[in-house]
Amino acid sequence: GAAGGGGAGGGGKGRDASERGGVQWVDVRLAQLLLQFGHREQALAALHEALRLAQQNDDPACLAHALLWLAHAHDGCGADVWGRLSPAGEREGEAAERRESAQAALLERCLSRAQELGLRDLAALASASLALRASLEAGVAPEAPLPGAASAGNAAAAPP
To answer: Please, what's the b/e burial string for 63-77 (b: 16 or more CB within 10 A of its CB; e: otherwise)?
Structure first.
């Protein structure tokens, strides 16, 4: 797996729930770090592992956070602004439209889960990202990055 062995949180019959429970958060943190250093493919692998482990360990909060970071990683970004669309040349074509639709769906799922779980900060980030995407798609680009976008993203991924 992406976070030091796919079996780290799997199986786990000999481990108690508290030992297994944090592994998915480690994968989310690893993905954040990998994105910061521009290792997008490895970050995607870590996020897919985090999603798998969050489902396996019944951790809906981690699942919601991982969805937000997955949308962020699929956006092709490293450590830049939430919801940034790919350059115009990359947006052309059917594959790019499917990718952008999938990114929006991830953000909508994240928003829905965050609202269900009462994770207000995460819901605000997902909502802001959806709004930014919509404004960029409409041709209305913000002049400056969202205030605290980089620091808010890191704070939002902290375990509750």
So the answer is: bbbbbbbbbbbbbeb
